[in-house]
User: Fold this.
Amino acid sequence: MGKITIITATYNSEKYLEESIKSVISQLSKDDEYIIIDALSSDSTMEIISKYSDSINYWISEKDEGIYDAWNKGLKVATGDWIMFIGSDDFLKPNAIKLYKEFIYDYVSKDCLYISSKMELVDENKKKIRIIGWPWVWGIFKRFNNIAHPGSLHAVGLFEKYGNYDTSYKICGDYELLLRPKERLNAMFLDKITIEMTYGGASSNPIMFKEHYKAVINTANTSKLIATCDFCVQFSKTYIKNLFRKIGINIKYRNQY
Assistant:
């Protein structure tokens, strides 16, 4: 089935980190690996990491150039066959790793490079916003990032063949890397919710839309006309959803779970 390495980048992550760590270590087997890369946090993040250091295989705290620089550092020391990235405010669902291992054993071929699943988006009070995550389809993915990246699995061969993360990206580097194989990416879908992600932070930053535009043009080779139209649609939809969420109304568009 293969060894799983989980990598988390942290920076002043005291609010959710302990819960995130507990959600990981509660289901790790002795064959799995947990790595935390910290960016010189000034809050109690390091105290929390130290508290659970016996369950963390490797951790460092040093200056970095952002989340993708941290992930690249994690990749350098990772020894797993499959790599999972989760945020410091993400929480693995119980048995998530078991579900992935069973799926790999039953269905996944040796040439599979990526496995995604579903993700539950929640607010800071743990109230469910919506469930996202769809199977990877190149015709859609080259225009819209409709997969759930947190908690998904990357075969180590993906990085060996297509390289590590581009640190010039600050938010969409995970999307850009998965665009590199184009239609050649052999991806599979686990139709289960494996993770909770707290809405906010980088995922709601307006810079995300600019970086997405850059990635679909430069890496996916989408035309500027199509990319511009998609940019306007996605930005408008997100703005409207966020506006209504502030007054307690959760809008779901068609094809959302």
